[in-house]
Amino acid sequence: MYPAVFISTLYAGLAEVLQSLQGILPEIAIAVTLLLVVLLDLFKIKEGALLSFITGAGVLAAALLLHTQGGAVPVAEEGLFHGMLKPDSLSVFLRSLFLLAALFSVWMSRGRVAGGVNISRLGEFHTLLLSLLLGAMLMSMTTHFLLIYMSIELVSISSYILTNFSFNRKSAEAGIKYLLFGAVASAVMLFGISLLYGFTGALDFASAPFHSSLLSLSIDSLPLLVAGFMALAGFLFKLSVVPFHVWAPDVYEGAPIPVAAFFSVVPKLAGLALLIRFVQYFHESSILFVSVDFNWQFILAVLAGLSMFIGNLAALWQDNAKRMLAYSSIAHTGFLLSGVLAYSSLGIKSVIFYASIYLLMNFAAFILVKILYGKTGNESIRSWSGLGKKAPYLGAAVVVVMIALTGLPPTAGFTAKLLVFTSLWEAYQLSGNAVLGYLLLAGVVNTVIALFYYLKIPYFMYFRTAGNEAVQETETTGLGEKVLLGILTGLLLLFFFKADWLLEEINLIDFIF
Amino acid sequence: MTAYLLSFITFVPLLAALMLLFVPARLVSAGRWLALAATVLQVVFASILWFAFEKGAGFASSAGAGREAGVQFLEQADWFTLELGSLGKMSVQYLLGVDGLSVTMVWLAAFVMLIGVISSWNIRSNVKGYFLLYLLLSCSVVGCFVALDLFLFYLFFEFMLLPMYFLIGMWGGPRREYASIKFFLYTLFGSLFILVVMIGLYVSVIDPVATGIGAGLLEAGAVLPADISRMQVLISHGELSSGQLVHTFNMLHMMDVNNYIPGSLLSLSGGETVFGQPVRLMAFLALFIGFAIKLPAVPVHTWLPDAHVEAPTPISVVLAGILLKIGGYGLIRIGYSIFPEGAVHYAYLVAGIGVFSIIYGALNALAQHDLKKLIAYSSVSHMGYVLLGLAVLTPEGVSGALFQMFSHGLISPLLFLVAGVLYDRTHDRLIENYGGLAFKMPAYTVVVVIAFFASLGLPGFSGFIAEMLVFLGSFKGAAHYNLIPFWLVAVAALGLLLGAAYYLWTLQRMFFGKYFIRNAGMEAQMKDLQPREYLMMVPLVILIILFGVAPSLFLDTVNSAVSEFAGMVYQTGSANLKMLLR
Fold it and tell me: What is the ipTM of this complex?
């Protein structure tokens, strides 16, 4: 019926798919959990505890699979599924962070009010959380434009809906804003990708055909730069780098607390993974990034500096804690970007260290917001006046977390900033590029600005006494949350005193530089 | 026991704080007694330290090719090492030690902290929280003086801000919130300059011993000075790959220019300039700004009057008595020791700022209505002498600067206690609201007179010796080294006159003449000194007089270190400067 050659090709193809499937067992586990949650929801099983348990178990299973065989899968030279996926050590580390973040978010959405998540929709909530997670995991392991686009959209669409999960006016407004901005960003990125595809005829930016055709291209560098920047814009949007940041404050403010915490870390780090790979490959092939007539390092450094300044200066004026944390996360993006644009293995290492610490401290901050919100029914920092004296351990945790976010010793936030600054200094010393020196100074100055607003929370909690309004406890804090907060705070201190324990893990990652 | 003496002195308060954490808050006096016990222990052990300290051993440096010289009570342990790939390793050590420059400061810190605890006895609100923070402060202050690893120093230096912020902000006066945030932002701003230099230093400096051992060229435990020189030569010829280098925060290694990676920004041969200056000179300036804010020197002093006025009395005592000294000490230990060429090149700047602080602070003090603010500005003025003494780089000048820090560390607590006594009784510190207090409170007046006279530099008190040494040193320095002009020193001498003016005028307005108090309702409160107040003031008075009549108690301890330090800074500095400005 069919020629034998075709059959054998089919077999070979199937064999590779089957072989490849073994490489993405963690993702399969997440997908299975996702389907299970959808099924439960279909049969009207709305038991919050059960849903949390199943989601948590799925995430844990994925983490287990990731670590028992994540690195051990024999990966073909070009990757899984004909080069679509590259589950390398960088992605293993980042996926572990994503799974950890998902676990924290699921943990935070337990309880009667569930941090603002509408409890009648917990089924959908967990489904969307898992699909977002799946998208982010795929984002972290691909260099293929098609899959990049698909995974970014998976993350984005889940995010648009999740933003709306408080089901109030503000939440809906934030959701629609996010959708509009996101759609435009995706369109721009897609256009950039299509241009790059047109230039090269290849979709994998890490592949040899892509490089060779870019290098042999006989056109002006301008269209190439425009295309590259458009593709980059999509990643920068996910990272919420200035000027692609305008969505962040509304979304963080409108979204339920566990969702905002998840947003502040996972899509951002997934975008960071893409950016790291993009920068690495383009830097390595010495096109686009060190093109003679165009200094990409300069552009990225300006964006990083702007993110720090605009994020921090805007955060100074916020009273809503979640909005403040949104601006603070924009500022932190500036630091993450600084490490990337140092173009060195030290830079990438420091970024990954920073990202890990950022995960810990941002989740700690959002848990604090949730606990304080539960105590006062209000997200306004002013409304938390006098709480520090009533709840001393909570107050102490606030101080540690805020100091970590500022980047002062003795917290790991300091070590993270120290490493990023070190990579900038080293890059400056090697290249003599003055913009790196200025970026270093900008980072240092921003630490002082940041202190001012991070201290605002302890300031109101300790220095001001509560007004006359009777504080009603809307939600009693579960013991679990306090334990999690304690663990996170402890880790922030531990990784200052023993930074090598974390860095040893990061050193296991193979870098291209 | 002496092996861990420094750790013990540093961490006793931390242990006490941990114990206090588990004491229920309703046992109010537990905090007081624990803090008292911890600080008494600190003073006892700091005294043992001073007695056991071998005088004449010189100053902590890496003289002798990478070997620690002059350091006593050395404690060294690896803290953590980060593998930074292409940059090599970053090694952070737990490195404590004292030399002649720091041993007296450790003792002063412990003693002032003890006086502070006694003065804190009448803190009424949230006692547990107060003493927890106080103990943390005590730990980090002492830590600053004993740390010889820059990372460790920076940890203590930064960590000090947090307890101070809360101590001023929660237990302070009416404008405490403004004062505490101003204090925090100013000092943090200063310390970030230090941070940038610290990053630059550890990127540039390597540990020859650890590098040699890591590369398999040396054997641990059998390292000779010759080996170290051999390693330094290897490094300077670039024979080791950058991945093998062990970058260090060890301040002693940073003081040896042979440990700098050739071509790195902070090496002598780097040749890079920033804003038209060699990077090393810029680094010195950055450190100078950072520590001048802490000291504080005009024009970055404006946080100090606010912080002092709003802080509760014991915190003012600690702030003036010991925290300001960390600025001066840091400048000596880090700025001057690591970048001696900056000290030579910018001597006129340091001295100029010092003299400006002396005069400007004194003029400001003359104009104050608030007694506490007057004392705060007199602190600014007195810290100016420290800068002047340091700048001239003569042994007399440097020991004058050190003695001024020590003596001011005894006198200013007494001054703030004196102001606190009045404030406790009437909640009013305005000078014009009092008159003729000598008739009502004779014992108090005696203490005030001693404090004021000691501070204005009357012979017989410690302040006199300090200021005399500074002037001797600066005149000699102006004549020999020609680093600063004569007229500058002459102008500084005006400060003595101004000091006498504001103190005597205050004395006349408040204590002499007809007895008078503006708020007549407070009449009943005007009692003379209480036993607790005697307890804190008498030891200070005794020590001020003791060190005034027998300054050798202090000078013998510091002399050899100071002369080695001054000689090293001037000679190495001049030589380095020639290399840099070729």
Answer: 0.90
